Amino acid sequence: MSVPAEKKQPAVARRGRRGGTTASRGHILEAARRLFAEHGFEGTSLRQVARSAGVDPAMIHHFFKGKDELFALSVELPANPEEVLAGVEDSRPGERAELIVRAVLRLWESPAQPSLVAFLRGTVGSKAKTALLRETVTRAIINRIMAGVPGTKEEVALRGDLVATQMVGLMMVRYVVRLEPLASAPPEDVVRLVAPNVQRYLTGDLS
Question: Which residues have CB under 8 Å from 202's CB, separation 6+?
Answer without folding.
Answer: 93, 94, 96, 97, 145, 146, 149, 159, 163
